[in-house]
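Exercise 7b. Backbone tokens:
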């Protein structure tokens, strides 16, 4: 996030969501805007609302000229979701990638819970979904060992840029 964010930037994060991203973004002077997760739709991202946020800020930027308004620099997607436990269907992830591609906004994919799914749900890595759609938007994937491999206390993680 350090490479993406500064005082002229916005990070879109889910609501409800893991609060650390807001702390990190604000420590770099960035603004956090929340998009809703829809409980009546298995906690999927509210893509219509997300698109309205993006359009609003792009119009402000065009109207005021570059440098005068904040720029959306990333959409954070936490899948499987913390705290809801939702695991997004591949079709929903494709819609997120298409939206990000349309507006040229990178996706930060927090996949720390990766294959920790229950009830027959299947985890689909965001980078795989983006690959199926032609790699037209940057995907920054964060993951690690502590959660997926049940080694609490291990602070070994990684970030993959695609």
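Sequence design result:
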């Amino acid at each position: 996030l350090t490479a993406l964010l500064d005082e002229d930037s916005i990070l879109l994060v889910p609501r409800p969501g893991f609060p650390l991203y807001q702390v990190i973004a604000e420590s770099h002077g960035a603004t956090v805007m929340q998009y809703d997760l829809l409980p009546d739709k298995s906690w999927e991202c509210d893509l219509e609302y997300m698109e309205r946020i993006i359009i609003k800020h792009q119009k402000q930027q065009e109207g005021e000229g570059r440098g005068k308004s904040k720029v959306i620099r990333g959409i954070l997607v936490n899948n499987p979701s913390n705290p809801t436990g939702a695991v997004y269907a591949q079709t929903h992830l494709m819609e997120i990638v298409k939206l990000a591609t349309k507006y040229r906004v990178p996706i930060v994919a927090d996949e720390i819970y990766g294959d920790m799914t229950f009830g027959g749900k299947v985890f689909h890595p965001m980078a795989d979904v983006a690959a199926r759609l032609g790699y037209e938007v940057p995907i920054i994937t964060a993951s690690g060992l502590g959660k997926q491999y049940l080694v609490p206390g291990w602070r070994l993680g990684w970030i993959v840029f695609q």
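Instructor comment: The first strand starts at residue 9 and ends at 15. The two ends are 15 Å apart (CA to CA).
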